[in-house]
Design brief:
By secondary structure, the protein is an alpha/beta fold. The chain folds into four domains: about 10-80; about 95-150, no CATH class; about 180-225, no CATH class; about 225-390, Rossmann fold, CATH 3.40.50.410. The chain is built from 15 helices and nine strands. The strands form two sheets. The chain has a six-stranded mixed β-sheet with strand order 6-5-4-7-8-9, sandwiched between helices. Helix 5 packs across helix 11 (about 280-290). The protein is elongated. The chain starts with 8 loop residues before the first helix and ends in a 6-residue tail after the last helix.
């Protein structure tokens, strides 16, 4: 391997993993740790078995398997690719994941300021066709109309088979039907009920000469519970973000859920969940990729309870949090934030991507405010949780 740059093996591996992510491969923290273990097992000089092991760890589809040799050679043996440019005929700069993330980051920062714009986040696909150097100085450039990477909406981590999407939508429909409605103080007319609706009964009696032959009844009006979904899209959850957002979108369509994503701050993406065009999917992908700086779960939950859902959180509301529970805020703040949500009458369910409940200190201290923990790493997990989600 070419190890010319003066850096540690772990830093070189992190750079390689970043390049893989730019080309659409789902390589998170777990995959990087597995690749590092392979280096320790085979040694850096055994390139052939090491590359085979890395390929098995990082590639999860036929497209990724075919893409691997080109990405591997580009990073570890750039001298072999000198002068070799794949021409696509494009003249405008291709969309770049890092550019999209940066644009989204800046837009969300602007929106978080008082009086900031409320427009949809901007991505690289929305930006004018300026020169690459003007926007991304120092980054590798495509030459001769070359396409540097594929469109974000073509990443396999975001693309499911039609039968999988259909199964997910069916599951969401079944779970939504089981969400227990809550009775309100209002009444509605019904063929049979608990109380006589005197006004409607008198109106009906007009047709019978004043005889009360058609009594009208009324029952308590019931409303479906409001559902809120908060998905963790921090770096530690990068490999799970695609599943979480697909699940969130299914419930946004079936249960009219409001969907939020958070890392170091909270942002609502509900309008994007109701539209599935490539441009919209690219914006959602940009939210979920490449953000660092840790995860501020407690601060995000407080922002959710005090501002975004202040008027809608009430008795019977469901709040679903999709996260591994690792928080960079002070451990006691998460318990206080969850208690604030719980005090409004909401029922909190915590979905985690591991078999066991995460052992994070902040989450352990907040367990009293959480109604149930549910593992969610696949559609099978969601189907298994169907009996308890009500």
């Amino acid at each position: 391997m070419n190890t010319a740059p003066a850096s540690t093996p772990s830093e070189r591996l992190a750079g390689f993993a970043a390049l893989l992510r730019e080309h659409g491969l789902t390589v998170g923290v777990a995959e990087q740790q597995a690749m590092l273990q392979a280096v320790l097992h085979f040694g850096p000089l055994q390139e052939r078995p090491l590359q085979a092991a890395w390929r098995a760890i990082a590639c999860h589809s036929h497209r990724e398997w075919q893409l691997w040799p080109d990405v591997y050679e580009r990073f570890w043996h750039p001298e072999k690719l000198r002068g070799g440019v794949k021409v696509s005929g494009q003249t405008r700069p291709s969309r770049n994941l890092r550019q999209s993330v940066q644009a989204m980051h800046e837009q969300m920062n602007a929106a978080s300021q008082p009086g900031g714009p409320k427009s949809a986040p901007q991505t690289a696909g929305d930006m004018p066709s300026v020169g690459q150097d003007e926007y991304d100085a120092g980054a590798p450039r495509a030459q001769g109309g070359a396409s540097r990477t594929e469109a974000l909406h073509q990443r396999d981590g975001q693309m499911w088979m039609p039968q999988e999407l259909s199964a997910l939508q069916s599951l969401a429909r079944q779970i939504t039907a089981k969400l227990l409605p809550r009775a309100t103080r209002r009444w509605r007319v019904a063929p049979r009920g608990q109380r006589l609706d005197m006004r409607q009964t008198l109106r009906r009696s007009v047709g019978w000469g004043g005889e009360l032959l058609q009594p009208a009844w009324k029952v308590k009006r019931q409303e479906p519970p409001r559902l809120f979904i908060l998905a963790d899209v921090s770096r530690s959850m990068e490999s799970h973000a695609a599943l979480f957002l697909r699940v969130a979108r299914a419930f946004a369509l079936e249960a009219d859920a409001r969907v939020f994503v958070f890392h170091t701050r909270l942002a609502e993406v509900t309008p994007y969940m109701h539209r599935d065009t490539p441009a919209i999917q690219e914006k959602v992908n940009a939210v979920t990729a490449g953000f660092g700086g840790g995860t501020r779960i407690a601060a995000s939950l407080q922002d959710f309870a005090r501002h975004h859902a202040r008027a809608q959180l009430n008795r019977g509301s469901r709040v679903w949090v999709f996260s591994d529970g690792f928080d960079t805020d002070e451990p006691e703040l998460l318990a206080a934030a969850l208690q604030e949500v719980r005090a409004r009458g909401a029922r909190i369910t915590w979905f985690h991507p591991t078999r066991q409940v995460p052992a994070a200190t902040a989450l352990q201290r907040a367990r009293r405010s959480i109604e149930r923990f549910v593992p969610l790493a696949s559609l099978a997990d969601l189907a298994a949780a169907r009996p308890v989600l009500h």
